[in-house]
Fold this sequence. Notes:
This protein is an all-alpha fold. It has five helices and no strands. It has a single domain (4-169), classed as Up-down Bundle (Ferritin), CATH 1.20.1260. The mean pLDDT is 96.
Amino acid sequence: MLSRTMQDAINEQIKNELYSAYLYLSMSAYCESLNLPGFANWMRMQAQEEVGHAMKFYESVHGRGGRVVLLAIDQPPAEFQSPLDVFEETLEHEQKVTAMINNLYELAIQEKDYASQVLLQWFVTEQVEEEDSATKVIDTLKMVGDSRQALLMLDRELGGRQAPQANEEA
Length: 170
Ligand code: FEO
């Protein structure tokens, strides 16, 4: 059985993951406005992955006899400075999410909630991947500099990101 404290904290994290989806979808819309469909695709896939993260928490609450309560999601920013700014903000956001996951893990230890600790271990690993993938694109964008041609090549590469499979999206 899920404790009330842990349940409330996970409900808060469901909202945070859905905000991440909202933020990345907004970034996708911005990239569309720059005529960079590959960047837009990458961000749309990222948004889908975040919905998967929210659902992983959602299902775990119900699976343990808890109650999901959906909280209000803030409006994300609509404007960004450049594709590099988009990915730098992505990395900054993911670093905040990593801190949230670490805090949840800490709470699960305090609560002696072993099932949540196992669930959160998956998220700890996922956050390493999330920060790494944003960092890689930032590094490439810095090398690209002002070259429109190199930017379009990167756009083609990012356009290849596929939708997460149902069994691995979260
Ligand atoms: Fe759900 Fe990007 O962390």
